[in-house]
Amino acid sequence: MTATLTERGTHRERRAHVAALHAELTRYGLVTWTSGNVSERVPGEDLFVIKGSGVSYDELSWEGVTVCDLDGGVVDGVRKPSSDTDAHAFVYRSMPEVGGQVHTHSPYATAWAARAEEIPCVLTAMADEFGGPIPVGPFALIGDDSIGQGIVATLRGSRSPAVLMRNHGVFTIGASARAAVKAAVMAEDVARTVHLSRQLGEPVPIAQEHVDALYARYQNVYGQ
Ligand SMILES: [Zn+2]
Fold first, then answer.
1. How far is the CA of 68 from the centre of ligand 1 (A)?
2. pLDDT per residue over 80-121, tens digit each?
3. DSSP class of residue 58?
4. Where does 12-220 sit in CATH, by number?
5. Annotated catalytic sites, by residue?
6. 175 alpha carbon to ligand 1 midpoint, in Å?
7. Contacts of residue 115, Cβ cutoff 8 Å, sequence gap at least 6
8. How far is the CA of 52 from the centre of ligand 1 (A)?
9. For the chain, where are the alpha helices, taking DSSP H only?
10. Taking the domains of the chain in order of start, what are their residue ranges?
11. The whole model's pTM is what?
């Protein structure tokens, strides 16, 4: 991507909203230093906004959020966009239903990713939110489309809005940035609980028909 890095101040409201959502990542302990990012699509404009690279969470305002086109090129902003921008762009191009994305290295979920082990659906909260296990995506190097391809290959057709990219971390999608943030918070929460459960024995799976019923009910009540 060629970053011209000029500020025109467009999409300021959406950038401020996305900047503010980053506070949820620190509140729930999902990120360290400047890692992690939130993005949101600009509906109808073939654009999205994403956290700038290396911007500290304490000084994140709308100006720390950059506007990009769907190829990841900078359209407006003074900060180079996140190094994960190509992955976000690939997902927005490939999945038109996705309105927001989050990436973190949240510790419990990333510990499952480091083992390339999906999180089994052993909690009703998981059935509600993820509709089954949280799947593992392939190993992918940063720098081209391969992370985005891995996310899309794993999540397309899956009920889960979260994928554990192998040896890396968590990527979540949602109808909005807020929905993707919720999925990232819930993914870490269930990763921790299932991990704790496993220390004491083997967690008991939930029967598929119960997973289906819980998911249908929850999505009906709380779904978009
Ligand atoms: Zn990462």
1. 19
2. 999 999 999 999 999 999 999 999 999 999 999 999 999 999
3. G
4. 3.40.225.10
5. 128, 222
6. 21
7. none
8. 14
9. 12-27, 85-94, 107-114, 124-130, 146-155, 177-200, 208-222
10. 12-220
11. 0.96
